[in-house]
Amino acid sequence: MSKIWAFMIIISIVVAFFTGCFQNIITNIMESGKNAIENIISLIAMTCFWSGIFNIFENTSAIKKFASVFRKFIYKLFNKEELSEKAIEYMSMNISTNVIGVGNASTVNGIKAMEELQKENKIKNVPNDNITTFVLLNTASIQLIPTSMIAMRALYGSNNPSQIIIPVWIATVFALIVGIVSIKILNKKI
After folding, report:
1. CA–CA gap between residue 113 and residue 84 (Å, rounded)
2. Which among 105, 10, 101 has a CA at the least distance from the CA of 48?
3. Which of 82, 164, 165, 166 has the least CB density, counted as fewest CB within 10 Å?
4. What pLDDT score does 121 carry?
5. Residues with Cβ within 8 Å of residue 94, at least 6 apart in sequence
6. End-to-end Cα spacing for the chain
7. Could you tell me the residue ranges of all domains in the chain?
8. Please, where are the H alpha helices in 59-190?
9. What confidence tens digit (pLDDT) does each residue in 125-147 have?
């Protein structure tokens, strides 16, 4: 993939040089870099806020309530014998942050959940069924309120930034169903 990108960049530079549009490339590179930094700064506040909220939940009894909400769901999808209580708590936090659409804030809990799942993994270099299922859940999570995307749409001046909620629900539910069915079939065959 890196060879394809490198080829496309080199071809673009050569074409721009011969067509006299080289200055446009420099201007676009600088403008894109500026936009990327502005986007990052705009999203940092939201990520910090939600990370803080879930850090508070983690240090109170609220984490136990989140875990109990998702416990039945987790037990149906995962191998119960290979799950520690800590893994369930971190997975619950990760799932709940993904569900409310704050994927950036769920990264820390996702990493902690993976560490806990890896402790129970019998073959250390090969992911077990619980790890692959958790990666799927983390990737194809249902998002009730896609806050990051709504914030990006508002940042770029959308008239109705929350207009994407229903399409996001449809896409994430479909992706999750197809993903769970696929992972269950693949985990049984491998």
Report:
1. 10
2. 105
3. 166
4. 83
5. 106, 109, 110, 113, 138
6. 27
7. 2-189
8. 62-77, 85-99, 103-120, 129-139, 147-155, 165-189
9. 888 888 888 988 888 888 787 87
